[in-house]
Fold this protein.
Amino acid sequence: MLKPPALIALSAAVVLVLGGCTGSGPKAPDQPGGVPTELPQPPHTELPAPAPTTQPPAGSVAMTALPGAAELPGWTEGQSATGGGKEQLSVCQQNRWESAGANSIVHRSFSRGGDRAVVLAMSFDTPALASQAYQTTQGWFAGCAAPLAARGDGANQTLRARPVLVDNGRAEVTEWNWTSGGKQQNEAQGLTQVGNRIQVVALTGPQAAAGVEKLLPTAARKLAS
């Protein structure tokens, strides 16, 4: 018995629809032999690693923050270096400057005949950390008799901490005299804080305290630069 033309057409449409639903996704034309060919995948690209940085920490202190020969007339500028140095920069120093936790340290030395001067600057991550280092250094300068006595030297503080007016910060000067090998010696110490930075000055010789006191306002402006 022959099927009506309409029924034949409907059956063909059903077969086409069902045949189109069997695949799970697009495929490339089959290779000879009936093996499906997978679509090519995009190549994997490695992102380049960031280049190592050699930049100093934000707010770190540079040599330009230290006074030079122009700020210490009559003195000869000596060595400038990073770090706190291997030798004691002040007779009152009781530990390495690196122990203060600074993120950068620079120092510079000067000489004038048999006298010497050293200026050291440190920067910290925050002003609060700089304040802690300032207070620690204050303690060293106030208690200088102990390290001098340990060397067998008699000590006398001739100038207790005296404030010095500086821009945008605080500063003070102290001075100690001591006897070493039967000879009188002295050292004046200056201490300054501007923001997250502090600066230490140690200077020996006649009128050392007056010299430090005169230097501190200019040194504070350089420290802030």
Q: What stands out?
A: The chain has four helices and seven strands. The chain has one domain: 63-224.
